[in-house]
Amino acid sequence: MKFLSDKALERLREGADTPDLAGTRYRLLERIARGGMGVVYAALDEMLDRRVALKVLDVSCCGRRPCSPAESRGSRARATGASGIVPVHDVGTLSDGRVFYAMKFVEGQRLDKHIEAVTSLPDASVCSCAFATRGVLRTRAECCIAI
């Protein structure tokens, strides 16, 4: 019996995870990152000809029926009005039952990469860094509540 390499297994996982966007207005461009809840892709909104971040959740609509258009509109309304939260343009359900969010694509360095790059902080910055971190966490909590 011959075993697959880790690299081959990772390619197979990526292929299985790649969402089928047939019937949507989005076309995948590239995979950006994987997080605890799903995968974020750069995609093209072909209707508006704009680049978006498309987050595809790992699980379907919590075992419920697919999200209705009214639920999608409600999610968008809650998520677009708060300051410091990336606007959500669209919410939908893929044919396999997974939920996706189309959000504004924000250029920049990923937070985990930025943290890795910071080697040390001057003593005077420690306090302001703690306050900034608290603000980021507060914004993150607001985002979770909004969605």
In short:
The chain is an alpha+beta fold and 147 residues long.
How does this model look, in words?
It is a single chain. This protein has helices at 6-17, 69-80, 111-117, 123-146; strands at residues 26-34, 38-45, 50-60, 88-93, 98-104. The model has no long low-confidence stretch (mean pLDDT 76). The N and C termini lie far apart (47 Å). With 147 residues, the chain is α+β, with helices and mostly antiparallel strands. The protein contains 4 helices and 5 strands; from the N terminus they run H-E-E-E-H-E-E-H-H. It is 37% helix and 28% strand. Strand 4 (88-93) and strand 5 form a beta hairpin. It has a 5-stranded antiparallel sheet with strand order 1-2-3-5-4, covered by helices on one side. The radius of gyration is 18 Å and the shape is flat.
Which strand order spans the largest sheet, edge to edge or round the barrel?
Answer: 1-2-3-5-4
SS strand fraction = 25-35%
**Cα-atom Rg, whole angstroms?**
18 Å
Counting H and I runs of at least 4 residues, what is the number of helices?
A: 4
Topology order in helix (H) and strand (E) letters? HEEEHEEHH
User: What structural category arises from helix and sheet content?
Assistant: alpha+beta
- Largest sheet, strands/sense/barrel: 5 strands, antiparallel
Mean pLDDT equals 76
Distance between the termini: 47 Å
Indicate the low-confidence ranges by residue numbers: none
Described by the principal axes of the CA atoms, the overall outline is flat
Helix amount: 25-40%
Give the beta-strand count. Answer: 5
